[in-house]
Specification:
Blueprint (H helix, E strand, L loop, with lengths): L6 H5 L9 H16 L3 H5 L2 E9 L16 E4 H12 L11 E15 L2 E13 L6 E14 L2 E11 L15
Parallel strand pairs: 1-6
Antiparallel strand pairs: 1-2, 3-4, 4-5, 5-6
Length: 176
C-alpha cells in the first residue's frame, strides 16, 4: 500500500518560488478550519514570531494602523493575549463560543519577493451565536506569507470588511 502524502508534509518542503496557488489555498483552508474549530493554539503555530493581524476601519481600508484607528491592530504579543482571552471560559464576549463557518475564494498569489508571498483572497465568515441573528462578515484578506525552513507561516494577516456600517454586525470578538 502506497503511503499517502499529507498536505502538511508537502508544505514542509516548499520554497517561495515553488509554492503554487493550490498549496496556498490548502494552507488558507487549513487555517480556516482551525479557526472554525476554535483550535486557536494550533492556529498560533501558523504565525511567525513577528506576525501582525489587522482589521482596518471601513472608511480607511488602506490606512496605516500607526495613524488610523483600526478595529484590530495586533502584533504577535497582542495576538497571543487575544487567543488566551478567547480560550478563557470566563471571557464573556465569547462564552459560550460563537460558531463560525469560513468560506475562502478567489485566492491569488499577487507577488513573490525573497522568502515572502503576498496573497489576496475573498472571504465570508458566518457567525452563529445563541439568541443573536446570524452575522455575515464579507470582505477580502491580504496576507504576507513567509516560507521559513520549508514551512508556510503567516507574517501579516489583514481582513478588510466590505460592510458599509459595522454597527449591525456586532463586536468582532472572535478571530476574523
Amino acid at each position: 500500500m502506497a503511503a499517502v502524502e499529507r498536505v502538511d508534509d508537502r508544505v514542509q518542503r516548499m520554497s517561495p518560488r515553488k509554492v503554487s496557488r493550490a498549496e496556498v489555498e490548502d494552507f488558507l483552508f487549513h487555517e480556516a478550519a482551525l479557526l472554525d474549530e476554535w483550535r486557536l493554539d494550533e492556529w498560533l503555530g501558523l504565525l511567525t514570531e513577528d506576525a501582525t493581524y489587522r482589521v482596518p476601519p471601513n472608511d480607511a481600508p488602506d490606512g496605516d494602523s500607526a495613524d488610523t484607528l483600526f478595529l484590530i491592530a495586533d502584533d504577535i504579543a497582542r495576538i497571543r493575549g487575544r487567543v488566551k482571552r478567547l480560550e478563557n471560559p470566563e471571557a464573556h464576549a465569547e462564552h459560550p463560543r460563537s460558531r463560525t463557518r469560513r468560506i475562502i475564494s478567489n485566492v491569488r498569489i499577487t507577488s513573490r519577493n525573497g522568502d515572502y508571498l503576498d496573497i489576496a483572497a475573498n472571504f465570508v465568515v458566518y457567525r452563529f451565536r445563541r439568541e443573536e441573528r446570524i452575522g455575515e462578515y464579507v470582505g477580502h484578506y491580504n496576507y504576507r506569507l513567509r516560507v521559513d525552513n520549508g514551512a508556510i507561516k503567516i507574517a501579516e494577516r489583514r481582513a478588510v470588511l466590505d460592510s458599509e456600517e459595522l454597527g449591525g454586525l456586532g463586536s468582532i470578538s472572535f478571530i476574523l
